[in-house]
Amino acid sequence: RRAENTASLSAHYKHGIWILNSNFLATSSRKDSDFSSIINPGYGLVNLGLLANVSQDLQVSLKVDNVLDKQYTLAHGFNTADRSVYVGIRYQGGL
User: Fold this and answer.
1) Residue 27 burial (CB < 10 Å; 0-12/13-18/19+)?
2) 4-63: pLDDT as tens digits
3) Using an 8 Å Cβ cutoff, are 54 and 92 in contact?
């Protein structure tokens, strides 16, 4: 199930308390398995993340995977994630 060609590009930008992360992944078509003639098409995904270091102890984050809501196949007959949004808060201080 591994594509013959894959590519990824990541970029990170920091400004003040903000960190912006971006990732692009592209893969070529590939056979579903050695025991099948089904070909899974290639695809491209865009993921974005934003992180704020609010204080030394506190981080707030937002992550969006599959920003363009691309329909793609990793294995024939199995679903893959639609656009997904994650929000996080991380506190590392003492209580």
Assistant:
1) buried
2) 899 999 999 999 999 999 999 999 999 888 888 899 999 999 999 999 999 999 999 999
3) no
* Interatomic CA distance for residues 70 and 51, integer angstroms: 24
Question: What tokens appear for 35 in the block?
Answer: 């025991």
3-state secondary structure the chain: CCCCCEEEEEEEEEECCEEEEEEEEEECCEECCCCCCCEECCEEEEEEEEEEECCCCEEEEEEEECCCCCCCCCCCCCCCCCCEEEEEEEECCCC
pTM: 0.85
